[in-house]
Amino acid sequence: MGERLGIGINAYSNVLPVTYFFREQRLESKVSFVEAVPAELNRLLAEGSIDLGPVSAFTYAEHAGKYETLNGLSVSAKGPVGSIFLFSKRPLARLDGARIALTNTSATSINLLKIILEKFEGFQPTYEMMSPRISTMLEQADAALLIGDHAIHAKWNEPAPYIYDLGQLWYNHTGMWMTFALWCVRKNAIETKRSALQEVHAEFLRAKQQGTEQIGEIIDFVLRKHGGTERFWRQYFLGLGHDFGLEQKQGLEYYFQCAQELGLISHATEVEVWGQAPKVKLT
Ligand SMILES: C=C(O[C@@H]1C=C(C(=O)O)C=C[C@H]1O)C(=O)O
């Protein structure tokens, strides 16, 4: 990455309440942008092609020690998330030994599914990574995991006999928040591009505040892009949390602990948070 701060943009709608009102023109000379699905952003961040972005929370643990995460920003849910679904031909209780197709766009949710099926249910399924096309996935497997807008469209257009929301399943077992994405920043960029990073962090927090206040405009945008109903999108955005405070951190660190128990990550991980906490707006 050159002098500019390279920022990844998550192609899915779940980040829009944070990103939609981000004023790129104001920072034009200091930043550059790349848009991709989460798994691709994870890779770009790991190789240093970008400095910062809303990547899979799981990848924070994979690269522990190399990243910090921007204070007050995440994609989280306490209960149903509304866009991370297991589409299944059989009820969940009958998935022991099943073949599961996993979207190749995710890291957090595929490992969350492994935690749910293997640790919580005690099952031993087999997995195959696939492109996020529900019909092909279900031709080849008993159940399929999709995330983001792919999951939303699949639920509208190709409903499976059983559909499970992973945020809900996690909540049923733990009573905790689940954090799917974090705004991770490479530690070397914190050192070399600190002032641009401070401005970008402040602008994301400002944009998030505006997103909360003017959610109607974001809903109009996704309606034009994806269809659906205004009621659907309003519910969807209401069900997502975009803060990252103590409760979200506790939930995520418990997820990392579960992932370590299953050997999905090799070490215990505590989340290091960078930057000032968002100012609470007094009304
Ligand atoms: C809520 C979501 O959160 C996301 C899930 C991710 C993952 O599973 O790795 C990564 C980033 C977010 O886009 C979603 O994609 O539906």
Structural write-up:
By secondary structure, the protein is of the alpha/beta class. The protein is 43% helix and 22% strand. The protein is built from twelve helices and eleven strands. The chain has helices at residues 16-19, 38-46, 57-62, 108-120, 134-140, 148-157, 166-174, 187-192, 194-213, 215-226, 230-239, 246-261, and strands at residues 5-10, 31-36, 52-56, 67-77, 84-88, 99-103, 126-130, 143-147, 162-165, 178-186, 273-274. A five-stranded mixed β-sheet has the order 7-6-8-5-9, with helices on both faces. A four-stranded mixed β-sheet has the order 3-10-4-11. Strand 1 (5-10), helix 1 and strand 2 (31-36) form a beta-alpha-beta unit. The radius of gyration is 18 Å and the shape is globular. The termini are far apart. The ligand C=C(O[C@@H]1C=C(C(=O)O)C=C[C@H]1O)C(=O)O binds at residues 10, 12, 14, 38, 56, 75, 81, 83-84, 106-109, 147-148, 180-181. Its EC number is 4.2.1.151.
Count of runs of 4 or more consecutive helical residues: 12
- Main sheet: which strands, in order across? 7-6-8-5-9
Radius of gyration: 18 Å
CATH topology of the largest domain: D-Maltodextrin-Binding Protein, domain 2
Low-confidence stretches: none
| Main sheet: strands, sense, barrel | 5 strands, mixed
Number of strands: 11
